[in-house]
Every structure is written in C-alpha cells, then in structure tokens.
Amino acid sequence: DQQVKQNSPSLSVQEGRISILNCDYTNSMFDYFLWYKKYPAEGPTFLISISSIKDKNEDGRFTVFLNKSAKHLSLHIVPSQPGDSAVYFCATALAGNNRKLIWGLGTSLAVNP
Amino acid sequence: DVKVTQSSRYLVKRTGEKVFLECVQDMDHENMFWYRQDPGLGLRLIYFSYDVKMKEKGDIPEGYSVSREKKERFSLILESASTNQTSMYLCASSLTVSYNSPLHFGNGTRLTVT
Questions:
Q1: What is the pLDDT of residues B35-81, one digit of tens each?
Q2: Which of A35, A97, A101, A107 should be substituted to probe chain B, the one whose Cβ sees the most B Cβ atoms within 10 Å?
Q3: B101 vs A89, A98, A100: nearest CB
Q4: Using CA atoms, how far apart are residues B78 and A28, in angstroms rounded to an integer?
C-alpha cells in the first residue's frame, strides 16, 4: 500500500499560471518531505525540502506547503514555465535520513506555451 | 556539479546471465545507492553503501548483490538475471545521510532480461 500518494498522475497548465502538485501521506510520524523533478532520460534531481517544524518553504518560483493535520503537502510553481514540464516526485525521509526515502509515484506536469 | 555516471544506458541480457551495472561519482561522496524504478511501484531502494566495503540492504535486495571497492564506484550485481529484474536501474550518491543532503542520480540503465 502506498504510504506516499500522488493522486494525480498528470497535470497540464498554461505558461505563466500556477502549477499545484499534491501529495498525501499516511503516517503522522513522517516529518521530513522532499520534492524531486525528473526529465525524460535523466535521473531525478532534488528540488526542495521541508521539515515538519515548518509549514512553508520557498525557493524562488517553488514553494512547498505542509499541512500536518491533513497529512498533505503541495508544491506550488509560480509562474509556470515550459521548462518545468517534467515528472515531480514527492518523498518522505524516515527519521530525517535519506537512506530511507519513501517515494510517491510521481505527477507528470506539462506546461503549455 | 556532481556527476554520477552509469556505464550503460540500455542493456539486454539473457535469463541466468550474471549482470554487472556500474556507477561512478566524481564528488567524493560517502553514500551511494541503487534503486529500481517500475511503473506503478515507483522508486525502490535495492542497496545502500555508506563507505568503502560497507553496505546495507534496502527494501528489495533479493536477487542482487553490490560491491564497493573504491569510494567513487558502486556496482550492482545480478548473480543470475531473471525476467522480473527487467527494470530501470538508478544509481545515486549523497554527501551525508541527512534528509536535506540531496541524492544525485545518474541517468539510469534500462535493463531488459529475456
């Protein structure tokens, strides 16, 4: 059973608009979360992380929001650009340790010019 | 920039063959990982190494072994390849094991076992 769920396999947005990618998790003990981005024919690359002591972390156009009570996090990309078209993976790091990452299945984002 | 290089992009092997997947990183990272990625199952950790000759089993180590004789090189070995090991294999490295020490991935090896 998936412990980290990305319920939308795909998402399409217009260039310049906001992209919102969602992730739900099952275990309230999870307290470190990460987003990775993957282009075709490449490995995933780290995007942004958040620990549960925060509810928001921002890096340029990318912001991650964490709602612990709902066991939900989201990645906002504003404004979206065609180069953001990729698969986005949500993951949680058990015990704050990157040896034990639990990954979602990914959401494929298409940003249309 | 960290570079993680996987020696083959595509590999086709026969059932029962011994298969070596090679991975080299150029940033003196202590930690290296082997994952496989399958549709509907996502990324799953096969093995992890935290130092030369040191290894830990991941979530799905059965049918695999690893070798780390030098810090920069981490090999995944399929002792007797089977069709259920057809998959995309991803190698990664990281500086520390902290959650905010990013994993740097190679571009993957797509292995087909026939």
A1: 999 999 999 999 999 999 899 999 999 999 999 999 999 999 999 99
A2: A101
A3: A98
A4: 37
